[in-house]
Design brief:
Elements lengths: L15 H12 L7 H18 L8 H16 L23 H5 L3 H9 L5 E7 L3 E3 L5 E3 L4 E7 L3 E9 L7 E10 L9 E6 L23 E7 L3 E6 L4 E8 L2 E9 H4 L10 H4 L19 H11 L5 H13 L4 H15 L20 H18 L1
Antiparallel strand pairs: 1-2, 1-11, 2-3, 4-5, 5-6, 6-7, 8-9, 9-10, 10-11
């Protein structure tokens, strides 16, 4: 289990990460003529902190690395082992009668900051339209994945999408059902299950509740209806995660902003996750050529351009979906996914993904015959 979410009693934890955080805070903005003196003070404080936590950290590699690192730095900067130390870093306000554990263990961001001295990092994943999957690593795939496939499967969350064909004789599919399981976390929530299907986007969990239950941290999991029947948002503060579920036309979409260590909390056996590894190669389809289903590619481009002025993968996916399905509502799916990405993606510079050579191309039968005949004539001329 990730350190920041450890459930062991505070008295038995190795607190070397707190020592690290205090040292980083003390040396972060050193300036002026007394910089060297202040640096040595910080190293002596660091050394003192590691000695205090030595008993509980004897088997911790981070602890031993810190001890050796301090010795090396003291030699490099000619610091004496005895002398003044840095003033202690201000601690969070003292807990009330409920105690720190019951107040903060279910607030992931606050708990992470308290233990590491810095804010957590986040990742974004989305599945919308055909479905198109944007992974936590900003890879982008269009998938057939008919049936049920896991988007996420880790220590805290399980998310499964069930897809169906959008048109006869087409490889394209769309998500018709989403199942989201927030796994039991002893200090914070009971296990909660959320299920959405086309034309049934509830604003409550499967048991009728709208939070994590009667446990002290139950309010750290909440569900809100943003647009009735179209947009639901689930906030899981106890794991630093927010999920958006939308319906546009005859398909559902899923977006998530998850703390990085939560997204990575899985075993080798949980290796099939579309948000982590994308679609398996056998399930990927090209967006280069679209099977016509009532709406021409140029018309689809105009429809998509109204909602998506930047011709990135969201725009390309929109064109593909509208042409393949014949349903103009797929413009709303791509637009909603982009709006979620604007809110959820931690790096605004990576919001748009551009892939060349994947635009929707329709080849008519007469034109295809012309190509075949031309190739045959070229072969004959060679002889």
């Amino acid at each position: 289990m990730p350190y920041a979410l450890s459930r062991h009693p505070a008295c038995c934890q190795c607190k070397i990460l707190r020592c690290n955080a205090d040292y980083v805070a003390a040396t972060l903005n050193l300036r002026g003529s007394n910089k060297d003196t202040a640096y040595c003070n910080a190293l002596r404080s660091y050394s003192h902190c590691t000695r205090k936590t030595a008993r509980t950290c004897r088997g911790d590699l981070v602890y031993h690395s810190a001890v050796h690192g301090i010795e090396d730095l003291m030699i490099q900067h000619n610091c004496s082992k005895e002398g003044p130390t840095s003033p202690p870093r201000p601690r969070p306000p003292a807990p009330n009668h409920q105690g720190f554990e019951s107040l903060d263990i279910c607030n992931y961001e606050k708990n992470f900051l308290y233990k590491h001295g810095q804010a957590p990092t986040y990742q974004h994943c989305a599945a919308f339209g055909d479905p198109h999957v944007r992974t936590f690593h900003d890879e982008f795939h269009t998938c057939r994945v008919e049936g049920s496939w896991p988007l996420l499967d880790n220590n805290y969350l399980f998310v499964q999408a069930t897809s169906y064909p959008v048109a006869k004789s087409s490889n394209a599919t769309a998500t018709g059902k989403l199942t989201i399981i927030f796994k039991n976390m002893k200090e914070c929530i009971d296990q909660k299950v959320y299920q959405a299907e086309i034309d049934n986007l509830p604003a409550a969990f499967e048991d009728g509740s709208v939070n994590g239950g009667e446990r002290p941290g139950g309010s750290s999991l909440t569900i809100q209806e943003r647009t009735p029947g179209q947009h639901v948002e689930i906030r899981a503060a106890y794991i630093g995660t927010t999920i958006a579920v939308r319906q546009a036309g005859r398909q559902l979409s899923f977006s998530i902003r998850a703390a990085e260590e939560v997204a990575r909390a899985f075993t080798e056996e949980q290796d099939l996750q579309l948000c982590v590894g994308g679609c398996p190669p056998s399930q990927r389809i090209s967006r280069s050529e679209c099977r016509h289903s009532g709406i021409a590619a140029e018309t689809a481009r105009l429809l998509c351009k109204e909602k998506l002025p930047v011709e990135d993968v969201y725009f390309q996916s929109c064109v593909f979906d509208v042409v393949t399905s014949g349903d103009a509502n797929f413009t709303l799916a791509a637009h909603g996914a982009l709006e979620d990405a604007k809110m959820f993606h931690p790096d605004a510079e990576k919001l748009h993904i551009f892939q060349t050579g994947v635009g929707c191309r329709l080849i008519s039968l007469p034109f295809l015959l012309v190509i075949v005949i031309s190739n045959l004539l070229a072969i004959q001329l060679c002889f």
